[in-house]
Design brief:
three-stranded parallel sheet, 18% strand, five-stranded parallel sheet, Rossmann fold, 8 helices
Length: 203
Amino acid sequence: MGATIACVAPDHRSALRAAERVAAGLPKARIEAFSLTGYLAVTDAPDRVVLCPAGRSTDADLRFLALAAGRLLWPGPPGSLRAAIGGIRPHGERPRRAAPTRRPAPAPIRTSALLLEGLVGPDRARAALAASGPVDWIVESTRHVRLPGRLHRMLERDGIRWSALEPIELVALLATPALVRARAKWRSLVPPRTRVWITRPGT
């Protein structure tokens, strides 16, 4: 059996339609359908995803891409922190090096971070923020972070920078021709050279 891939869309119905299209092009892969909210709620969901905007309007698709990128496409820790974490985690649980997620932005050299293993819910996040420790927070996976959107946005405004020991791999973007034409508005949200699979609205 081929790899398991998650089709992540704004809602479950759109995800099911997208999964049918993706499955037709990847007959050896196992395809699972998730809304973005549903994906973030499943700890063991596939770590390879196809982002699937619903295609109802370009503006709505752009909003979904921005939201999905902010909640899924987190980078791995910098090399020095990755090595340090690998030294304290049990054998066989070293952070894996992944392909880059979004296009990197200039950032200061990071020498300290807060490692949050296990699930990170609202109470734990607020306690970490109140402790006034490092602003770089490293989690095991984006799927371990169970925060409402409002709190997640507040943490970002407070300067929190997220990274994940198990970064999500973006396999492709399923996009309408209109969204492809708007590439300049979303290309900074996804990794360089992300594959784009074109679909027609309503198909």
